[in-house]
Amino acid sequence: MVATKPNASTPITGKMSQRVWFYSILLTLQYGAQPLISKRFTRREVIVTTSVLICEIAKVVCAIILMAKDGSIKRLAKEWTLMRSLTASGLPAAIYALQNSLLQISYRNLDSLTFSMLNQTKIIFTALFTYIILRQRQSIQQIGALFLLIMAAVLLSIGEGSSKASSTDDPEQILFYGIVPVLVASVLSGLASALCQWASQVKKHSSYLMTVEMSIVGSLCLLASTSKSPDGEAIRRHGFFYGWTPLTLIPVVANAVGGILVGLVTSLAGGVRKGFVIVSALLVTAMLQFLFEGKPPSVYCLVALPLVISSISIYQKYPYKVKKKEA
After folding, report:
1. Which of 281, 48, 251, 39 is nearest to 157 (CA)?
2. Which positions of the chain have pLDDT values less than 50?
3. Using CA atoms, how far apart are residues 116 and 285, in angstroms rounded to an integer?
4. How many whole angstroms separate alpha carbon 30 and alpha carbon 20?
5. Alpha-carbon distance 299 to 247, whole Å?
6. What are residue 206's phi and psi, to 5 degrees?
7. How far apart are CA 231 and CA 52, in angstroms?
């Protein structure tokens, strides 16, 4: 059976809520474990672009298998149109590609603390755009929970690496090539997340199909960039699979599964809840580093833990309630 998608304004209850929690926990574990898996199984010689492209191919394969399994692939083959695809998936994919480029520019021109703080504003912009596009309101308590989550995300980001200093002391360069790009990237992240939720919940676009379409668009953008990028030059010089081993497929496939889960969580629960998953995953990473590498969690991580737990509890406990109109 094809998964039933909730309306943007309808609260998630019952079995749907259980599925949301199940997918969210799986995604949290995948996000949290991914850095350790990649570090252990990916050699330094591997060209980043090649692993990203293979990951996108793996996403497409997984999504097609799942569509075949739930019986939706035949129906989608009849209903699919290019215009609908470009609206539902092409636009968010292009926005995410632009966002990633802006983040790379900003990271080179800001210190880690400033970058981390400004980058977490994407949670607020996601909530803003879900309201503008989907009219999905947040209660006062939920807004407070979002700010708690941002505080936790900033603390966790500081704990991961606050030693990086800005590469320049020029105030204008910091502003126009550091602060402005990361803020624009945060706005774009919120917009793209809300558009994905809109396509899935309002236009009833299959999350699996969106994964396929966005992976294809993203891969085409990445392939186009190889004509002038350092990775493209490295591929032409050493070959596509330079530095690869059979074990390199482990983090690639794990990342692809994470991409499928992102689509499911966004489709069923929305982009704001996906933000909770991403921040919670930082705690999972810290825990796994302690268990497998003996690296104790930082003070920032210990302070962030109750903030994350509190924010999730508050956000779940106090949903927005539509006020009944007076007779």
Report:
1. 281
2. 1-4, 8-10, 326-327
3. 17
4. 15
5. 34
6. -60, 135
7. 11
7: helix, coil or strand? Answer: coil
pTM of the model: 0.81
Q: Do 46 and 251 meet the contact criterion of CB atoms below 8 Å apart?
A: no
Q: Do residues 63 and 260 make contact, with C-beta atoms less than 8 angstroms apart?
A: yes
Q: What is the pLDDT of residue 47?
A: 92
What's residue 85's pLDDT? 87
Q: Residue 137: helix, strand or coil by DSSP?
A: coil
Query: How many Å apart are CA 21 and CA 5, to the nearest integer?
Result: 15
Among the listed residues 268, 265, 267, the one whose alpha carbon sits nearest the alpha carbon of residue 281: 265
For position 145, what pLDDT does the model report? 94
Percent helix / strand / coil, the chain, rounded to 5: 80, 0, 20
Q: What is the model's pLDDT at position 9?
A: 47
Give the distance from CA 30 to its chain's centroid.
12
Distance CA 275, CA 278 (A): 5
Tokens read off for 320 = 């927005």
Q: Of the candidates 1, 5, 9, which has an alpha carbon nearest to the alpha carbon of residue 206? A: 5
| Contact assessment for residue 103 and residue 178, using Cβ atoms and an 8 Å cutoff | no
Residue type at position 6: P
Give the C-alpha distances (Å, rounded to integers) separating 228 from 100, 108, 262, 298. Answer: 17, 19, 30, 40
Length of the chain: 327
Nearest to 120 by CA among 193, 190, 171, 178: 190
311, 148 Cβ separation under 8 angstroms = yes
Q: Nearest-CA neighbor of 130 among 200, 73, 72?
A: 200
Phi then psi for residue 228, to 5 deg, are -130, -5
